[in-house]
Design a protein that fits this description.
2% of the residues lie in helices and 63% in strands. The chain has 784 residues and is an all-beta fold. Among the domains are: 112 residues, PapC, N-terminal domain (Ubiquitin-like (UB roll), Roll), CATH 3.10.20.410; 215 residues, Outer membrane usher protein FimD, plug domain (Immunoglobulin-like, Sandwich), CATH 2.60.40.2610; 67 residues, Immunoglobulin-like; 83 residues, Immunoglobulins (Immunoglobulin-like, Sandwich). The strands form 9 sheets. It has a 24-stranded antiparallel beta barrel. The chain has a 7-stranded mixed β-sheet with strand order 4-5-3-2-1-7-6. A hairpin with a 3-residue loop joins strand 27 and strand 28.
Amino acid sequence: MARRDTGVFRAAAYLLPLCILVFVTPASHCADSFYVSVLLNGQKKGDLLVFRLEDGEILVGQQELTGFGLSLPDAPVQPIGGEPFLSLRSIQGISYAFREETMTLELTAAPSLFPRQVIDFAPRRQTNVYYPRDTGGFFNYGVSYSAGNSFDFQELDVAGEIGFRAGDYLFFTDSTYTRTRTEDRYVRLTSNVTYDRREQMQRAILGDFQVSSGLLGSNLLLGGISFSKVYGIDPYFIYYPMTGYSGLVSYPSVADVYLDGNRIRSEKLSPGEYDLRNIAYYGGMRDISVVIRDPFGREQIISRPYYFTDTLLREGLHSYSYSLGFPRERFGVESNEYGSLAFTAFHDYGFSDTLTAGFRGEGDTDRVNLGPQATFLAGNADQVFLSVSGSAAKETGGGGAAILAHQYQNRELGTRLFLQGRTREYATISETAATGRLRYEAGAGVGYGTSVAGYISVDYAVREKYEGQDQRIASVGYSRTFFGNLNLQLTYRNIRQETSVNDFFAGLTYYPWTDTSLSASWRRTEDADTFTVQAQKNQPVGEGWGYRVTAAKTDAPAASVTSVNPFVQYNAKRGIVSAEFVGEYADPGNNRESYRLSAAGGIAYVGGAFGLSRPVTDSFGLVTVDNLAGVRVYQNNQEIGRTDARGRVFVPGMGSYVENQISIADKDVPMDFSLGEVSRRVSPPLRSGSVIRFDARKYRAVTGKLGVKVDGTIRPVEYHEIRMMADGKELSFPTGKGGEFYLENLPPGTYDATFEHEGRKYGFALKVPESEETIVDLGGFTIE
């Protein structure tokens, strides 16, 4: 758009009004030039200089039209005063009307001439996130002492975890020690080194790790090496398919996006093409609608269902895991007992947003199984999973297995179907004999629910083995929430193995406050009835109390048993303590009582500081507020604790890779201190320690008077600029009347300063002493 001042100069150049020559055709024409107010597809664009020919044709500057954001097609250019102009009649896709009474030029451009507007619905990343890479470590401990009747010793359990992170590498090991009246046992659990490539979302593990090769394989604890794609390393990356809409609007409009009738976002659209991208949700089939309203009140409604699922990959994405190692045997009992070399693997690829396919497999020195697998949407509504596998083993030869699973889910209705069959000879790493091997398994279920009627589900499953007991389970469940804080749950199950067992359950839970619940339930299994009541307060994120009190009574023909189980836990600043009592009182006799006392905590190290804290369950942070004590520290708006005498507090429960909001209460900072910031977003790597600094500098001012001695006379250096170096940077400050100067927050030290006076350059050393005073007066000093 041409600004008015530019147009004035241009008009002056042509001595408006003026008859000029315009090279439209070989003949010349006389044209008038004047300003008009421009409306482009209903939007005001300001004032613009135009030329009108004798035949009414209007010429507009090419530069001004492109400045409106229009992509102009090829049109004859007509130079005026050396600048290109275009005839509006010659531009395909643009119509116009000139309102002479209001001096308004109304332009209407086809939407295709405007740039495409892209609106991304994907989670927005914060721009001011701190990604620490500090070196640190932690040691977690847990001690539990159990006693029976008369407080006689029963068991002592000690658990320990050690973790240390340096850069992208995490070293971790954990172990347990158990002592009873008959034995002592120490067991190493897992030890490994984890390397994460954060940007690529890849993870490599050397040591002990859990691994799975899929539903037709095994779940194992291997000691070896693993390499996998882990999308959880970036919680803000959406790996599953999303939906979007494209279209065009002729006028400035508003787009409202609705999910199942609930508006989730509103966006302003400029004229032209638009792209609404990456609308993500969960829960199966959902109705997505986009309502577009233009300035004239007209509505355009675009609506279609979309099946949201996180079991599919977006087109072009991979998911994989490759592992090689030795299976742990007798885990939790023996420290270093491993089997023969084995491998597991799976690799899936998103061929499209509706098809993800790949392979899975596993094997060791005696057996191997391998096969393809795929997940796809049938008709963009039904989710189907299919996996086929063949095996070969030294003892049993060849075998086969297959799985077919179907799932449909919308806002109210859900259905599920599962079929699995295996030949007798099909072998996996975790099964070594035919005894107990699965022959086939089938299950089907349907659920329906609304917020008014509640949710009801019906399921049936059958499981048969080549040897061993077969099992059939039929179940019906119902749940409903009343008044937003009262939940009813009813279930019935029939389990048939050698005998048929009926199980009824009815429960009611009330939530009077966010972290507190009261519940009562009744369960009947065969000829036994159990009545249970419970009150529970959840543990706070920071310091505070939590408890659970449970009382139950079971009536059976053989006996009536009353049990009580109170539990209490306190989260202190430097640890957790808990106590639990279990009492069972039978009629007749045979009462049993047990007591359990536990303590747990952590020792964390980062930034050259050790600290005692509650157990470090994920990542942790050391918040420092210089040396200010008693400053409250919050994590995600929940108080964690107060800084100690050195201005530090440990935050033991930070989430890995997510953005943790760490903030301080500025009201706790003395008035003579200034804060750089009071809140930071921190995204640490897995099980790491991070130093989170909040600068709280004590306010201090430096004053003095500066003079210069010239020809034996001392003159004040008034209204001069003084330059000096501080912390490697040049800064300047002015002097006032009498040579007075004033500086804020200048740390103690000696600074080289210079100034110019009457054409000469002077230099001097500005010495700021250590002082607790808010204002440090350096007095007057003279420069020779």
